[in-house]
Amino acid sequence: MRGLAYAKINLTLEVTGKRPDGYHELISLMQTVSLADELSLQPTEALTLECDVPELAGDDNLVLKAARLLGRGGRFVLRKHIPAAGGLGGGSSDAALALRLLDVTYELRLKPEQLLEAAAKLGSDVPFFLHAGTALVAGRGERVTPLPDLPPHWLVLLNPGLPLSTARVFQELRPEEYSPSPAAAGEGRGEGTWRSGNDVPSPVNTLEAPALRLEPAIGGCRARLRAAGASQVLLSGSGPTVFGLAAGESDARRIAEQTGGIAARFVAREQALALSS
Ligand code: C5P
């Protein structure tokens, strides 16, 4: 079995406070986009991972952790296209796809809540990728409300080429930068608007200021996308990848060429969850 592990962007990301467990409470509108890793699984007793980026094939790869969590072996082959530690959820998407491939290949018939529980153990962004498409994510990341797919949009992803640790960005975040309150974060940004699927909401990302302090190159990426004519420019997740919305495909391709970025489009749920043999 094989599938594509699509990247995500955070159209909005509001951190509302720190939790007793050390994680942060957040609310985020997440969207899968067309940049994707390729992952396949062949059933074997031994557990192995081959990856075209050898330094990502270590024991701590989330694909291997997913297999260990479900107590299964298999020969995984992973081709990376999503930059690692880029704020695009690449590793998390790989992990969610690994769980789904294991479930189907070994006919485990896991209930959705069992898959979600396993996903949440692997990382805060992993539960989102079990639903994919457009979804509202809350809590630490484990509360996922799938929304109707937003209309297709084109965008450009621009990565400064440096990894940025999510943990470091959260550490750098100051309490005075938190969004006012969970209720305000949900309602103020118009959860109703997102549900209507009419348009993308105005961009907001609480993690942008701390990420910029740690990685000033993000500012340059923002400026390049703006100068090239992207309509809305925002950091994705904890960065350092920045995305800019485009007016359509030709606009996205032009902006990508001008900035050295990658043109991509929103990927709807059904396409994002497709598997093939
Ligand atoms: O869950 P994950 O391992 O992907 O998170 C990486 C790091 O990001 C955590 O160790 C934590 O420091 C931070 N984080 C957070 N609050 C979240 C998600 C992640 O503080 N909701």
Q: Tell me, briefly, the overall form.
A: globular
Radius of gyration: 18 Å
Fraction of residues in H or I helices: 25-40%
The biggest beta sheet is recorded as: 8 strands, mixed
Chain-wise SSE layout:
Blueprint: E1 2-18, E2 24-42, E3 47-51, H1 62-69, E4 74-79, H2 90-105, H3 112-122, H4 126-131, E5 134-139, E6 143-147, E7 154-158, H5 166-172, H6 182-188, H7 191-196, E8 204-205, H8 208-214, H9 217-227, E9 233-235, E10 242-246, H10 249-259, E11 262-265, H11 269-272, E12 275-276
Parallel strand pairs: 1-8, 3-4
Antiparallel strand pairs: 1-2, 1-12, 2-4, 2-5, 5-6, 7-10, 7-11, 9-10
Keywords:
34% helix, binds cytidine-5'-monophosphate, eight-stranded mixed sheet, alpha+beta, 277 residues, globular
Could you explain the architecture of this structure?
Mean pLDDT is 92; it is low at 192-197. The strands form two sheets. Strands 1, 2, 3, 4, 5, 6, 8 and 12 form an eight-stranded mixed sheet that branches. This protein is α+β, with helices and mostly antiparallel strands and 277 residues long. Helix 2 packs antiparallel against helix 3. The chain contains eleven helices and twelve strands. The structure holds cytidine-5'-monophosphate.
Brief account:
The protein has 277 residues and is an alpha+beta fold. 34% of the residues lie in helices and 29% in strands.
